[in-house]
Specification:
about 550 residues; alpha+beta; Glycosyltransferase; Jelly Rolls; 2 domains; globular
């Protein structure tokens, strides 16, 4: 079962069918066009060489249960590296190594047999944890809906000692728990020269924030930058621990942050070409691509992500000035808006048909109609900007009229003057998603946008974000509307809450009132370094004058 299928199955905090969520696990009866080989070749030409940094551990730790803490554990030092290397471990023994921070990469060590005769292999179990609960709690019995093979554990048998060992798989980790399953009664083992081999395609340290920025926001920036760094591999991965996939929605946020702190324009370019290489027969692009061992299309078609491909290309050309790539991908970007145009009715409203997946957020009750209307308008506006940069204005001559008609329809259909907010669906639902996207699309006056956001923020029945992805767009909308104190307060409550929970990188899933949120049925299958969580570093720079 993959991530999208898991989120359709079973009841959980996040899982159900809402407006804009396809009722089936995968898009059915999709006709794919052949891969665009020229785009794949251009993507391959931009593939980066990963930078390896060898890191020594800080020492040993012991988790101590503490129910007052968000993850339920505190970390107690249990010895330095010398103490670790002095330990001789026998059957049933173990230790937990702390590297002091998150990284994506490999683990190596020298394994030494200690005893009168090494007469059997050494069999070891490793758990590589992103957070303390990974190594403090048993991973089994596993209760999740995603494949158990994603759990960060390995059983390794070493036949001959002494031996230098480098585990073959790549991991995302701060902690390494080692248990000796067995040796023999004749010998034990000791670990020397334990090293992490951190991998990233990011180069150089991020530029610092202004000295006057509050210390808690500086710490937030450091952790956000680490999140992006560890997701920057040979594509912008959604999570280096689990999924390891390129998604359009994640890419857009990673690229914005990358331009601001860790520029790697070729990596953005590579990802755009990989996504563009796999259209459906009608030209719509998938929302995701698998990179390894060779690139292949994903089977997911979130229609808002199709808009965000065009937006991400507009961002790229604006940030880099790379008009040649913009021109090369222009037909693909423009096609996304044209494929989706069929869903706009005669009243200039985007109507989400049954079975269409519109993402916006993982939320069981969110009505997405208002947000998708705004996302489409935003796409038209950003493609208009792109056309101006590329000299393609003549190809979008109808865009101004279409934008004006959809803006007017938005105010007529979705804005409720009596309550002062944008509403969505037959139940006139009020959500922060609706207010945020209408603000980002610049529908109505700034005063109206600010008022709608503030009213929704105070509403007891307001549907609120469940992911860092939508929390980013709500924070950005607040800044755009001039609601600066509310934006900073939301960043402190959300990403600051993860910091208080002990995050070294920001997580895939978090709710301030439920830190151990379980979107897939088991907390240990969550990703604790996830691409769509990296944007505080972007927000703190893009809106620095408003903080």
């Amino acid at each position: 079962m993959n991530r999208r299928e898991a989120l359709r199955a079973g009841a959980s905090l996040w899982v159900s069918v809402g407006a804009g969520i396809a009722t089936s696990g995968r898009t059915q009866n999709v006709v794919h066009a052949p891969p665009v080989t020229a785009f794949l070749a251009r993507a391959e030409a931009c593939k980066p060489t990963l930078i390896e940094t060898v890191q020594a551990p800080l020492g040993l730790i012991t988790p101590v249960a503490d129910a007052t803490l968000p993850l339920g554990w505190t970390i107690q030092p249990a010895g330095d590296v010398a103490a670790m290397e002095d330990k001789v471990l026998h059957k049933g023994d173990g230790l937990i190594i702390d590297f002091g921070g998150h990284r994506t990469g490999h683990l190596s060590f020298d394994l030494i047999g200690v005893g009168h005769n090494v007469d059997a292999p050494a069999r070891l179990r490793f758990v590589l944890g992103e957070v303390i609960s990974d190594v403090a709690e048993p991973l089994h019995p596993y209760k999740g809906r995603l494949s158990e093979s994603w759990l960060p554990e390995e059983i390794v048998t070493i036949d001959y000692l002494p031996q230098a060992v480098k585990l073959p798989r790549r991991y995302a980790f701060r902690f390494v728990k080692i248990e000796v399953i067995d040796t023999s009664s004749s010998f034990g083992v000791t670990f020397k020269n334990v090293r992490a081999h951190a991998l990233t395609s990011a180069t150089g340290p991020p530029p610092p924030l202004a000295a006057a920025m509050p210390d808690d926001l500086k710490r937030m920036d450091v952790v956000a930058a680490a999140t992006l760094r560890d997701c920057m591999q040979t594509v912008f991965e959604d999570g280096p621990r689990r999924d390891e996939r390129l998604w359009t929605g994640d890419l857009r946020l990673q690229a914005l942050t990358s331009y601001a702190i860790l520029p790697n324009n070729d990596l953005v370019k590579r990802c755009l070409y990989l996504l563009a290489a796999y259209p459906r027969a009608d030209g719509l692009l998938p929302g995701d691509v698998y990179e390894q061992p060779v690139p292949v299309r994903g089977g997911d078609f979130p229609n808002d992500y199709a808009v965000f491909f065009a937006v991400a290309l507009a961002d790229y050309v604006q940030a880099t000035g790379d008009v040649a790539t913009g021109l090369d991908l222009w037909p693909t970007a423009a096609r996304q808006l044209e494929v989706l145009r069929q869903y706009i009715n005669r009243h200039h409203v985007f109507v989400i048909p049954n079975g269409m997946w519109v993402f916006v957020d993982w939320h069981d009750t969110l009505d997405r109609a208002c947000a998708m209307q705004a996302i489409y308008i935003y796409g038209l506006k950003r493609v208009s900007e792109l056309a101006l940069r590329l000299g393609k204005v003549s190809e979008i001559s109808d865009y101004p009229g279409r934008i004006a008609a959809m803006e007017n329809a938005s105010l007529k259909t979705f804005y409720e003057a009596r309550s002062g907010v944008f509403v969505s669906g037959p139940d006139r639902q009020v959500s922060l998603a609706s207010q945020a996207w209408m603000t980002i699309a610049d529908i109505g006056s700034k005063g109206r946008q600010a008022k709608a956001l503030r009213i929704a923020l105070q509403g007891a029945q307001t549907v609120r974000p469940r992911t860092p992805y939508l929390n980013h767009y709500v924070c950005e909308a607040l800044f755009l509307a001039g609601c600066n104190s509310e934006a900073v307060a939301m960043m402190r409550a959300y990403w600051g809450g993860m910091l208080k929970a002990g995050a070294d990188t920001f997580w895939e899933a978090y709710a301030p009132d439920t830190p151990r949120v379980v979107p897939y049925g088991d907390f240990h299958i969550n990703s604790f370094c996830h691409a769509w969580s990296c944007t505080p570093s972007y927000l703190l720079r893009a809106y620095a004058k408003q903080i």
